[in-house]
Amino acid sequence: MSAPKKPEVVIIGRPNVGKSTLFNRLVGKKLALVDDQPGVTRDRRMGDAVIAGLHFTIVDTAGWEDEDELSLPGRMRKQTEASLAGADAAIFVIDARAGLTPLDEEIARYLREQEVPVVVVANKAEGKAGESGAMEAYALGLGEPLAMSAEHGEGIADLFGGLWPIIGAKAEEWEEAQDAARAEVEAMDEEDRPSGPLKLAIVGRPNAGKSTLINRLLGEDRLLTGPEAGITRDSIAIDWEWTDPKTGETREIRLIDTAGMRKKRNVTEKLEKLSVADARRAVDFAEVVVLLLDATQGLEHQDLKIASLVLEEGRALMIAINKWDVAEDASKLFNGIRGALDEGLAQVRGLPLLAVSAKTGKGLDQMLGAAFELRDSWSKRVPTSALNRWFDDALEANPPPAPGGKRIKLRYITQASTRPPRFVIFGSRLDLLPKSYERYLVNGIRAKLGFDAVPVRVTLKSPK
Ligand code: GDP
Ligand code: GDP
Predict the structure, then answer these.
(1) Does ipTM come in above 0.85?
(2) pLDDT per residue over 219-267, tens digit each?
(3) 262: closest CA among 156, 140, 112?
(4) Substitution site in 203, 210, 212, 262 for ligand 2 pocket (most atoms within 8 Å of beta carbon)
């Protein structure tokens, strides 16, 4: 059986309607030329696109572009036919401001004859300008047109809504195959000490400064930054090397960037939920996650939500307060956040908390140094002898209760796995062990065995 394929979506439309702009928006790179001159796109380009966790290959065709004639030259038609042949869906772009043209109708006629499902996008519909154009596009007979602005990133949620019913199942199948392959690799090095690149994800609300931070780290203007929220593409991985100024050692890092959990802002609630799912996926890749806060905003409920999600996934978490260069009343802010974290995230105490500035570069080397250290403890294995020595002491200092006069027996503990650390405690009558006693043991593991800031899992087991 061959491996599942990623769905393929072709962008079609006459020149200058915004195909390249849409392509760039979906791929998240400034790959294609965008120009007011019609026909500037020459090649058929392919890219990896993702909208809120929906992955597909996007193809931008030059197929209709070279001639201004109304009829389609045979050669061009062939090229477009070729790209439609392998496609699971087509996005047919029209210009909502310009209205329908004879060429649009010609293309529509052609598309109606094809098998491939079509989503009609009325582009350049930001503001009110495109409303009538979008309505007009009903006449193309290809279903409900989606009003969008590729340039301003509006209507992406609707595009998702249009594509999902067509390619969602195939995309999920593909993703499951990816997950399975990944799990296989992970199972192989499960027991190893951390080696290979540090897999690091930067998450946070829109405008926290994630793109700016990544640009700063990479020393290149690789991501777009700007005051508008949600400008980053959905999820990417970048490999690079960092030299620790403290040791002079060069270390590898694989950076995973998420677009952040977008709060409402031209984005429907549906997309908001999906982008949390998207970040969850990026978190799946990561060993260490940096939650970036904005010093001018402080810690909000949404931040705690993201933090809990990261910890639930068993990843190592650290918090960086960004924009420290413009922080007011710095020490009060820092202590306030420290307190709110310890209170809001009872499952982990003393998460690494740092102040940074993506703008000036302050604190970034410390942040990366701390991330490597955090990965070490997250990956640490405690020798069984040391573990049981601690266990005996803990039981002696505070013996388990004896409900109904019969003591609950805890016999021994082992560390079942690392990354995150998991422990199994064997004993009898374990179903009667109070939660508070379990917490006592978990806190002990954290404090006494060097797992302070990492999520620790403990399971109780009765031998059969
Ligand atoms: P293509 O020839 O179909 O690939 O079109 P391009 O992507 O090159 O875009 C043509 C022109 O339309 C460029 O000047 C873009 O900046 C502009 N454009 C693209 N999308 C939008 C949009 O959503 N709104 C507006 N107002 N202009 C857009
Ligand atoms: P993202 O949406 O989370 O990726 O945030 P961006 O990287 O786009 O940044 C949002 C805004 O915050 C931009 O205007 C940045 O210039 C600004 N910004 C980011 N980092 C800093 C910083 O360390 N200090 C200051 N003063 N501004 C920053």
Answers:
(1) no
(2) 754 454 444 444 444 445 677 889 899 889 889 898 876 543 333 344 4
(3) 156
(4) 212
